């Protein structure tokens, strides 16, 4: 009996040492809003097939989280690895309903800690809710917002930021605030407030998806191949509050945060009267581009007259745009009726 006891003690000691040697994924703090959170998991538990997740420790799950595809790989060093395509983590909430009709009239908070890969698929989705709200990679930027049905037409209400650096862990948080006078979407990335999305109408909602949230993929039936490539360390969903407070976001770094410097590959610009730039150009290159701008002979002659004018009715009217780009064709200026300038 003593011999058996010594073997069991040695085995237990070995297990303890091995568990201590494993890197920790994410410990959910005891101060987490356990009374209200619908989901707050750091993947310390176990993903079971494509149907379930079993929580561990202080993790919170009111509803069911599960794999979307089955190939999502749990990794104690990073959380869950996702390879794009149909992969992702789906959460069906049991205590949070975004609305009973075709619009999302209930506010909510969603947060994710993630590490992106350098290459993302077309419209790779980091987060989605209800079929009408997404955070995704698009046109070389990270785009977030929602679709709404306004005055009989579909409207895409979005903002964009530079894509977060690959291979580095980031935190993205959003709060959706529908109201009687309009709808707001507040977003933070790595402790920094991002441009708000606002619209007069709430986000569209697929009634079959009113309690469904997606991390690393979309939830809309026609968009289930827009998987994110990288890893998810922690995800959170909670009911919204009437107003936004920074304390509503638990996964954002605390204290003032300076946006990380983006890598900048120097570019050379030839002098010209128009120089194309993109939203991903770094500040140093934008300064170079601005410094290389030169007026045409006609533009220079106009400037020599020291004249200025602000014309509401001009070439932009015929392009149906507010601001021109300097490349419009003057021949397109073609009023079809009498113009009464005195009435202006």
From TrEMBL:
Residues 1-20 form the signal peptide. Gene3D superfamilies: Glycosidases. Residues 247-267 are annotated as: Disordered. Keywords: Signal. This is Alpha-L-fucosidase.
